[in-house]
Amino acid sequence: MKFVAMVFVVGAIAIIFADSNSEAGDILYAWKTYLIDPNNVLQSWDPTLDNPCTWFHVTCNGQNSVVRVDLGAANLSGTLVPQLAMLSNLQYLQVQNNSIGGEIPSQLGNLTKLVSLGLENNQLNGPIPSSLGNLKSLRWMRLNSNKLSGKIPISVLKLIYWGNLQLLNVSDNQLAGTLRQANQTGFATTIVIQDMTA
Questions:
Q1: Signal sequence: where (predicted)?
Q2: How many CB atoms lie within 10 A of CB 58?
């Protein structure tokens, strides 16, 4: 009887992992439909495969949860999608050096485990979402060389003082305002890279 109960528990856990993997696969495949991929970089992103951990450019942790998406310099165009925020264990989102356009979805501020956000050298426009200030685990935020406009939200600037942010690069955009360097003992050191003129 104990053996049957153990098999049932192991089976239930396997189903939970399969469901979470299937959901992550659905999210990533949905994003793929918004991307133009002339070099077939995303060819392995096959919706018939339940486990996106087997896809190229996707890394999972020991619990088969997606923690990293690396699509730098993949010659992709299209947009980011709000559904990416449902990858709750995502730590690295790297899509730099592509032609990704549109606005940065505010929902990305729900990726509270994110360590690195690499969106530089794309065609992103619109404001920097204030919700990115929720990313307290973020160490590297690279938004440079896009077409972003408006001011850097105060919530994002607060990551310099209260978060783990080590690098904030917003240069080569159409942002307004300037930051003043301040050396205050006790705060983490953050490298801020911006345009010299506003």
A1: 1-18
A2: 22
Provide the greatest CA pair distance for the chain.
74
* Nearest-5° Cα angle at 105, 132 to 142: 50
Q: For 41-90, write each residue's pLDDT tens digit.
A: 999 999 888 789 999 999 999 999 999 999 999 999 999 999 999 999 99
Rounded-to-10 torsion of CA 126, 142, 137, 108 = 30
Nearest-angstrom CA–CA distance, 13 and 194:
48
pLDDT > 50? residue 6: no
| Domains assigned to the chain | 2-193 (3.80.10.10)
User: What's the pLDDT score for residue 196?
Assistant: 54
Q: Are 166 and 189 in contact (CB under 8 A)?
A: yes
Helix (H) or strand (E) holding 115: none
CA-CA-CA-CA dihedral for 25, 63, 56, 45, to nearest 10:
-10
